[in-house]
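Subject: sequence -> structure tokens, single chain

Hey, anyone have a minute? Need the predicted structure for the following. Not urgent.
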Amino acid sequence: MAVSIRLARTGSHKKPFYRIVAASREKAVQKKFIEILGSYNPSSPTNQITIDRDKFDKWVSLGAKPSDTVISLIKKIKG
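Reply:
Had a minute. Here:
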């Protein structure tokens, strides 16, 4: 089973909220995921990004591949 780290959209119409999740690559974006690693709120004035680095590093060490969007969010956190 190939695992990717990607965004799963939640929230309401015109008010998106995303979870950063570890999910199987075969599943659709809004289907079941394995674990929640963090969140991203683009609607807030500061584009609030939270991520559990321990969980993220664990999944990357197990071979999970982050999406391009998640990589860019990680770069924003590091500053």
